[in-house]
């Protein structure tokens, strides 16, 4: 099978190729100011190599979701999933070799960075038998691997930088070939940029970026001026997968395109000023009031992500249950006991924590309808009640159970179950759970993920971890003594 793709042509019109097998071993760095054609270059590379290798695209602006309209990519909407679901999707992405676009435009910047970090870490932590070759493209890489701290928290920067460093420094042995694109080399962490052996440098104007780009291309600093003179869509390429000497490339055309384009001028409306004023001010007060009083819209359904992967792999949960008759009114105690019984049965399934929350919630609603029980829980309430069931908290007396639940009241839903398990086992037998128990309720087989979970809980101040030199680990829960009778 031909492992080379044409990325464009040189100044004489000859095709310039990229060797995909070599790229998998040596990684790629793309740099160019906004408007230099950086996204167009990435799209050309992805389109040309779509049939050769699996592709994973981290897309903070939603620029690459249109690939799914022309190729076999699955779009994962980061805003529609929990941390555990994102990590599960990443694991299945590696296992089933699905090309995916992780679309993050529905999240704010810090959430984008955390979501991408969890996804990349799960790709990196995949079992050895799933180490298939894949191109991992990270657009706007300066966000995910910043050279210095910015407005995001230090914890977010740390986990993101760790994920990006693993991708670029250690990903090759796991089959992951990092392709990072940035507007500013000076803003990208040096240990991430330094691992790339192939470079495509587009137009840039700041001296610090030009000089650094020239150094990476092996050019003298007085030659750096030509980087400033590059036209849109033209790049200087160098590297074992491209050319042994710097070569100027004009990037070829693409099939897909961004969902919306802001390029080009449009004629302004020709209506009289008084009509335009009316358009702005008519019914302004009622519209403003409705905007304030209206509840926030629900998150968009993830039809392009979990549902599509479920359709392809038949592993992501159950179909939407048909609407049934309304459950008859029940005494509150009976309803509570029936709901708790359903949750206990679901939690008893050893693989339940490995399933997406949305699929579990649908299964829960189905069981409630079958038993003519009014669920009385929304998704958020279900997450926390199911976490308690997974942890076996109902084994404890009511007073002790409520006190332990209060200790975890400020925790995120996706880490509540392992904390409650730790607190429950400490209360019952004076020691924490073993790693297999934690893995079961957290929905992971990765020791690295368990370690990061415990670090997170310790930073939250809800547990204390003590490790001895022999590798043993002792857990304790501050405040647990007050929760026990």
From TrEMBL:
Residues 253-273, 316-338 are annotated as: Disordered. Residues 256-268 have a biased composition (Low complexity). It comes from the Bacteria. It holds the Pfam family DUF87. Residues 10-92 form the Helicase HerA central domain. InterPro entries: ATPase_Atu1862_pred (IPR014588), HerA-like (IPR008571), HerA_central (IPR002789), P-loop_NTPase (IPR027417), WH_DNA-bd_sf (IPR036390). This is DUF87 domain-containing protein. It comes from Croceibacterium soli.
